[in-house]
Structures are given as structure tokens and as C-alpha cells.
Amino acid sequence: MRQNSLAAERRRKTVLSIVLAVICVIYVLPVLTVVINSFKQNTYVKTETFALPSEESSAGFSNFVKGMTFGNYPFWKSVCYSVVITVLSTALILLFTSMAAWYISRVNSPFCKAIYYLCVFSMVVPFQMVMFTLSKTADSLHLNTPWTIPVVYLGFGAGLAIFMFAGFVKSIPLEIEEAASIDGCGPLRTYFSVVFPMLRPTMISVGILELMWVWNDYLLPVLVLDINEYRTIPIHIQYLKGSYGTVDLGATMALILLSIIPVIVFYLICQKHIIKGVAAGAVKG
Fold this sequence. Notes:
By secondary structure, the chain is mostly helical.
């Protein structure tokens, strides 16, 4: 009887491993396709999409050079704008949402509960419902530059961040903050000296998720920014077009590869912190 149960358990694990392996291949296949085609000539990208580069179809690193030098808009400017927007947006989200989540969790009032549920509700509101109004509002408030668009990202990223931070704050013993208050700490000093260091696991996981979202985002910058003056990397890739709207797919794949490498490397380094942060935030969420 025991042998039968062990055999059944082994079969279940084998089937589960096969299913997960298939899912992994499905997720990795688009990335592999981008890598393969970034080293192939444009003609062969269209006709031999899934074939490995051969001596005849290989373009070497010319696609990367062509993509970075195409047109009259420097690629390095797009990289700088993407970095500025991503860093500022992530910093704003981490600072203000963690403080808001701490206040909401500690002040148990109907108003705070309403704010919390509104933030949670904002996670399920489609962006298409507000994008035209948002674009007009951003222009009116002069939030249409790389240095001001992080305020817009703060509004869109607050829902998930507050949800995760609030769940983690509820797991922090209130007595620690009371002890700091007895020692003479005000609210700000209590937060930065006591609460903020304890938020590190969730801070890292939220930061990674928001950073990946902002770095890869295309729709919000193209709606808000003046794309003739400010182009992020996704917008720059979109404008790799020649005469009559023709697109050099080899150069496009090369720039896509350059844009996803930093995110993939950053995610692989910090993925364990995402798991820890989500688990920590779900203790009493």
C-alpha cells in the first residue's frame, strides 16, 4: 500500500515537472526569439524567424550599431530619459506609498479604510478608461517632462504598493513604535528610524516590480511626453522605421534585446527578495 502511494506521488511529481517545464519553455521562447533574430539580417528575420543564425543569414553586431545610430535622435538620450523616469518614479512610489500605508494601517478610521479600498480598487481599473483625461490633465499641470512624469507614475503605482506595504505594516508589533514614542520620537522620526528599516523586504520587492513596470512602459510616456523631444527606449524602438513605413526587424530586435537585458539581470539578482517581500506582506494583509 505504501509502495503504491509512493509510486503515485512520484508520477504526480513527474507530471507536474513536465507541465512546469512546458510552461517555462512557452515563457522563455519569445525572449529566445528576440536573441536569435537580433543577430540575423532583416530578410531572414521575416522568412526564418525561428531558425538559428547561419553564415548566410548572420548580421553580427551590425543590427545593434544600426539600431543605435538610426535616425537623428540619439539612442543614448533615450537611455538617459528612461533611467531618469524609472529611478525617480520608483523612488517616489517607495517613499510616499510606504508612508501612506503606515498611516492607513495605524490610524484605524473609516476615512483611512476608504482610502485603502480605493487604492485596492485602482488596481483593477483599466488604463484605457482614464488615458485621455490623464493626457489632458498632465498637459494642464505641466507634468509632461521626464522630470515631472514620475508624479503620474506615483498615482498609477500607488495601488499595488500601498496594498503590499499595508499588509507588512500590520505584521509589525505596535509596541515597537510605542516604545519609540515614549523615548520622544515624533511620527516622522518614528517612521524613518523604526518603521522604514523594518520595511526593507517589502521595499525591495515593490521597488523591483515598479522598476520593471516603469522601465518597460510605452503607453503612458507616448501619451504624456512630447515624443519629438523626449523619447524613452520603448518609444525610440517604435520609431525605427524607414521610408514608406518599412521596419528593420533586425535592428528592432537588437534594441529590444538591449532594453530587456538590464531588467532580466536585475530581476534574476533580486528575485529572492520579491518572494520574501510578497510573503512578508501577506502575513496579515
